[in-house]
Fold this protein.
Amino acid sequence: MIIEKMNGEQFREIVTAGAKNLRANYEEVDSLNVFPVPDGDTGTNMARTIEGGVHAIERKKTKKLGEMGKVLSEGFLMSARGNSGVILSQIFRGICKGLEGKEEVTAMELAEAYKLGVKQADGAVQEPVEGTILTVYREATEAACKAVGPSSSINDFYEAHLKQAALSLKNTINLLPVLKEAGVIDSGGAGYVYIVKGMVKYLSGEKIEVELTKPDSNAPAVDFSAFTSEDVLQFGYCTEFILRLQTSKVDIDSFSIDTVIADLEAPDIEGNSIVAIKDGDIVKVHVHTKEPGIVLHKMRAYGEFLTIKVENMALQHNEIMTEEEAEIKKATEHKKYAVVAVAQGEGIIEQFKLMGVDVVVSGNQTMNPSTEDFIRAFKSLNADNILVFPNNKNIIMAAKQAADLYKGAHVEVINCVSIPQCLSALAMSDFSIDDLVIILGNFNAAIRNVVSGEITVANRTTKLHGVNIRKGDYLGILDGKVRYAGTRKNSVVLELLKKIPDIKDRQVVTILYGKDVTEEEKAKNIAAIQSYYPDLEVGGIDGGQDVYKYLVAID
């Protein structure tokens, strides 16, 4: 089919086809991981991100392109996970900004919207690097913009976009030294190319027979017995709505979301766990209150409702929250400081809780939490300040995106990229100081002081960071770089310690053991370290984590 002008329904089908093609090929994208370990997640993250956008628009009935784009952008934003997913969400956020107010677009108008995607994505990354999805998207957009003219079709734009995207992807290996050494192209760029290929397939009439992943839903049926005729309302109502601002009621451009937040915090509502987001003329709100009627009455002063959901939180405690959320949900006790940390492994989660973490968000290198996962965690807390430990460099962007969106508390995302760093920082936590600058300074000092080690198994033969690696080797990683590869776990640990220049000035080594490490291996590991470094205090914790056999903190 040839599309001269694209409307909202056609855009939905084009994006859906892109999502399906990525879902069909996400495992190949995962396999492009630079590190030769079974924790590749780029394809998974990008697929889940775009699918979140598709789920948001799949029942949207409008031919107006701008309206479809707004809903799509929000779906992308909330489902974004991993750095690649967050960048993808920002690309489409920019594109959708360029579609605002339009019923349909020509190829040249679409090209202008794609230019905004370049600007939005680049602005979301603190230090953009060439040879990534950013390069692939930018060069593809520049080429497509040059290729289309007044008589061009939407098909022409996407075909030109795909042609250059594929060429740019091949060249990523020459732009990033780490890709060249590992012998792979950029995984994020590869994921994006699969999306555009799916779009072109749709436009050429080819069907992609793949089922998308269903939206996350862990809620069983409502248990009405959780609130009986004898009960007294304790938790209030979880009230959520989407409001479209009306020009007859407010000046949409100057209307501030702070006005809504002030209403929700007023004495007649006493709202808490507030999340309020303004995107153009759309306001999305989540609030806990005993007075949902007053909330709805006040909000109509600004616009009209598109959706409303009000649920008794006594029932939520039983059925709406997942088991994990029910466990971490805090009642109404107010705290000045609360801590959120990302972790996987029963032992690590237990240790974090013992060290004062209020909410543990489930996730690791192979399972990155989404922006919405973080916001859900923030909503479960009643605190003035929320301090977030992402504990993985691939999770930081989603955490920061959630922090920017959440208005219910001041949120600080700590630049913490490993579990060992988090353990050291938590050991330095002292909220009695009651000075956020000093608290953050103590955390950052602890993170700078600790050396993080990881031991895992290579799943392919390659060379990385100057180390020759064979499939099946145990890899020794220090602060994100492969430093040693060998055939025995405990020998790799010792070799890693030798790589630390000031190891003799260090005092403590803490090892978190993976779930398949035996008691005999643990004992031998500690004995070997103590024999070689008798002045070091060595301790072990059953972390229970996947993939990484040992996580090592050297203080």
Q: What stands out?
A: The chain has four domains: 6-203, 236-312, 328-434, 451-554.
